[in-house]
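testing teh design pipeline on a random one, pls ignore if ur not involved
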C-alpha cells in the first residue's frame, strides 16, 4: 500500500502501533557481481567486465514485476568494489564513473521510478583486489601484515564518497559489506566504524546496515568465543542512531545454502542473535535466506518469515536471489541442480518451473506484509528519524 507523508503522519498519530514490524521486504538483486570467477584463480579475470554481457545490476522488467505485482518495497543491489574502484586506482574516493553511472541508473530506477528502497551491497567479503576466487581471494581490507591490502582508511574513503553521491536519496540504504569472514573481529569493527564515520561526516543520514563476522550468520552470532560477533558488533557507534544489523541465515544442514534439503529450525537458531539484539536495543535485516522447492523448505521458509514478523527486532528482509544473469542457474539450495532463480520468468535447466515459480510465488511472496513503508527516509523506525532522548 502506498500512502503520502501526510497520511502516514496522521495514521501514526491516531493509531496504536501495529504489531507487525517489518517495514521493508523484497529480494536481493544479484548479477552486478558476476563474471569475475576464474577456475585457475587468475587475478583480474572479468575486470572491468562488459556491462550487459558479463554483469548487469537489474532487469527493469524483473523489478517491475516484483514491485508492482508482488508489492515488495526493497531490492538489495550487489556490485563489486573492484569495478567501482579499479585496482589501478585503488580502493577509495576515485570511482570508475562509467561503472558508477550504470549502478546509479539501477538504484535510481528502483528508488525514483518505482518508489521502492534499495540496499547498496558491496559484495566483497571484506576483501579487495582479487575477486577471481571469491569468497576467499583478495586481501582482507585493513590487514596491516599484507602490503597489498587496502587500508581501513581507504575503506572509509570509499564509503564517504558513495554516501556523498546518494545522501540526497532517502530511499537508499548503505549495506556496509557482504559476509565478512576469516578475519579478526576487532579489524571488522574498525573497518565498519571507519565507514560509518565517513558516511556521517558527509552529512548522509541514510540507514546503514552492518554485518557481523563469520559470514554474518545469525545462527553463529554468539559462537566463536572471544571473536563472536555478539562480543563486538554492538560496539559500533552511530551519531545518527540509524544503524541496523545485517544478518544472513540459510536453512540447510551446514547453513551454507548449498543443499536442497531444509533441516534447520530458524526460531531455535536465531534465538541467540535475537536476544543479543534485544539486549543492545538493535534492529536487524535478514538480507539473505532461501530454500529449495521441497515440502520441508516450504515449512521452514514459512517459519523464518513468521519468526521475523513476530519478533520486533526484525524490520526488513531480502530473499536470495533474483537478478537478470542467473539464467537456469540457482542462487542457492539445490545441490548444484539448476532450478532457476527468483528472477521472474526464469526457468530450470530441465525446462521445469524455476524457484520464482516454486518458491517465490507460492511461499515467500505470500509473506510480504500488506503494509510496508513506501515513503520517508529508510530508518530503524520505519519512515522517520527519531533519536532516543
Ligand atoms: C571503467 O568502466 C568502463 C565500463 O565498464 C570500462 O570500459 C573501463 O575500462 C573502466 N576503466 C577502468 C580503469 O577500469
Ligand atoms: C523442483 O523444481 C525442479 C525444476 O522445475 C523440478 O525438476 C523438481 O521436480 C522440483 N522438486 C519438487 C520437490 O517439486
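output:
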Amino acid at each position: 500500500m502506498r500512502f503520502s507523508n501526510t497520511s502516514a503522519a496522521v495514521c501514526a498519530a491516531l493509531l496504536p502501533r501495529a504489531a507487525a514490524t517489518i517495514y521493508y521486504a523484497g529480494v536481493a538483486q544479484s548479477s552486478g557481481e558476476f563474471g569475475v570467477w576464474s577456475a585457475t584463480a587468475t587475478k583480474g579475470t572479468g575486470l572491468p567486465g562488459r556491462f550487459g554481457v558479463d554483469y548487469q545490476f537489474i532487469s527493469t522488467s524483473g523489478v517491475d514485476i516484483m514491485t508492482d505485482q508482488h508489492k515488495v518495497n526493497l531490492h538489495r543491489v550487489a556490485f563489486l568494489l573492484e569495478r567501482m574502484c579499479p585496482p589501478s586506482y585503488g580502493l577509495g574516493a576515485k570511482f570508475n564513473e562509467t561503472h558508477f553511472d550504470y549502478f546509479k541508473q539501477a538504484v535510481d530506477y528502483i528508488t525514483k521510478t518505482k518508489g521502492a528502497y534499495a540496499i547498496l551491497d558491496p559484495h566483497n567479503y571484506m576483501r579487495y583486489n582479487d575477486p577471481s576466487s571469491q569468497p576467499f581471494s583478495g586481501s582482507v581490507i585493513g590487514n596491516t601484515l599484507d602490503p597489498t591490502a587496502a587500508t581501513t582508511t581507504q575503506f572509509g574513503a570509499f564509503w564517504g564518497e558513495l554516501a556523498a553521491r546518494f545522501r540526497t536519496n532517502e530511499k537508499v540504504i548503505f549495506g556496509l559489506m557482504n559476509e565478512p569472514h576469516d578475519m579478526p573481529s576487532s579489524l571488522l569493527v574498525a573497518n565498519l566504524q571507519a565507514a560509518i564515520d565517513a558516511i556521517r561526516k558527509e552529512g548522509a543520514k541514510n540507514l546503514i546496515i552492518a554485518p557481523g563476522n563469520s559470514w554474518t550468520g545469525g545462527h553463529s552470532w554468539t559462537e566463536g568465543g572471544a571473536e563472536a560477533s555478539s562480543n563486538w558488533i554492538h560496539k559500533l557507534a552511530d551519531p545518527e542512531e540509524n544503524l541496523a544489523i545485517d544478518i544472513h541465515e540459510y536453512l540447510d544442514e551446514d547453513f551454507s545454502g548449498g543443499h536442497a534439503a531444509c533441516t534447520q529450525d530458524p526460531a531455535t537458531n536465531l534465538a541467540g542473535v535475537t536476544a543479543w539484539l534485544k539486549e543492545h536495543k538493535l534492529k536487524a535485516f535478514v538480507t539473505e535466506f532461501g530454500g529449495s522447492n521441497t515440502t520441508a523448505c516450504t515449512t521452514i521458509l514459512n517459519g523464518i518469515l513468521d519468526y521475523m514478523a513476530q519478533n520486533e527486532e526484525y524490520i526488513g528482509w531480502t530473499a536470495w536471489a533474483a537478478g537478470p544473469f542467473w539464467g537456469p542457474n540457482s542462487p542457492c539450495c539445490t545441490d548444484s541442480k539448476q532450478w532457476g532463480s527468483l528472477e521472474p520468468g526464469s526457468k530450470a535447466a530441465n525446462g521445469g518451473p524455476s524457484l520464482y515459480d516454486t518458491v517465490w510465488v507460492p511461499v515467500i511472496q505470500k509473506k510480504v506484509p500488506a503494509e510496508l513503508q513506501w515513503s520517508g527516509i529508510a530508518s530503524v523506525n520505519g519512515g522517520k528519524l527519531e533519536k532516543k532522548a
